[in-house]
Design goal:
Strand content: under 5%
Structural class: mainly alpha
């Protein structure tokens, strides 16, 4: 039991970091699964790796509670209206992923959830980050706050999020890249990516829980709650780091990291599998 808790603490740390940075949590989890074998059933592990994200989501809710709360007594009528508009744009943004996810998720997992696909996507999107940042080096963003983010642009960013259904793409990576291409600032791209994750991850977690059932053993409950708690605390740090980072830096460093990780994934499985 003790060693399993240590394992889920490590998994929670990795989840809390990689869920928000555009470096693919799936890619890291595949490598981690090779190095740290959780002593649990395949069904539990499949559910665990998704539901652990609820801890990460709670970090977003905590950090943005005031900004996302349309019923705050501290807000004026106009501020409440603007907050509701953010939620409307989030709902519009998640529609494409919700539709395609329900239709294609099992098929995509069956055919693309493998180290080759993950490695290729890590490298491709790593290159895209570098190319797009170089292209936009001297280009000023046209969307610097949520009032300037139109519903059409929100939906278009949501279409980019659909790409993240392919393992190794990174949900935040696809969303951020799409948002930057559509003219948003890096800061707004990152924040909108965080907000889109709330309904997406709640929905994905609910589906996995229903599929797994609610017949948990005591050990499984302890492992799940431990992983979620660690993911929560690490996510708070990771989100704050990313928002501070993008104020002064671009995303090219993440692009190079993705390329290196993709090569490591290929190298590991080629040499040891």
């Amino acid at each position: 039991m003790f060693f399993e808790i240590i394992k889920v603490i490590i998994i929670g740390i990795v989840e809390g970091i990689t869920e928000w940075l555009p470096i693919s949590s799936t890619g890291h989890m595949i490598l981690l699964d090779e190095l740290i074998k959780l002593n649990a059933s395949d069904a539990f592990k499949e559910m665990f790796l998704v539901v652990i994200q609820l801890g990460a989501i709670l970090a977003v809710i905590l950090l943005y509670f005031n900004k996302l709360n349309p019923f705050s007594v501290k807000k004026t009528a106009q501020e409440k209206k603007e907050t509701l508009q953010i939620w409307y744009k989030v709902i519009i943004g998640v529609i494409p992923a919700a539709i395609f996810g329900l239709i294609l998720e099992d098929w995509l997992d069956e055919h693309f959830y493998n180290y080759i696909t993950v490695a290729i996507m890590l490298i491709i999107y790593g290159i895209l980050f570098i190319v797009i940042e170089n292209k936009n080096k001297d280009k000023k963003s046209t969307i610097n706050d949520f009032n300037h983010l139109s519903y059409g642009t929100a939906f278009s960013i949501g279409l980019f999020q659909v790409l993240a259904l392919i393992p190794g793409t990174s949900r935040s990576g696809a969303t951020i890249l799409g948002a930057i291409l559509l003219g948003t600032s890096r800061y707004i791209a990152a924040e909108y990516s965080f907000f889109l994750s709330i309904p997406v991850m709640f929905g994905a977690s609910a589906l996995k829980l229903i599929k797994f059932g609610f017949d948990f053993s005591t050990m499984e409950i302890v492992l799940l709650l431990t992983g979620m708690s660690v993911a929560f605390f690490v996510s708070v740090i990771a989100i704050k780091f990313l928002l501070g980072y993008v104020k002064k830096n671009d995303f090219k460093a993440f692009g190079w990291y993705r390329i290196v990780l993709g090569l490591l994934v290929i190298g590991y499985f080629f040499l040891f599998k």
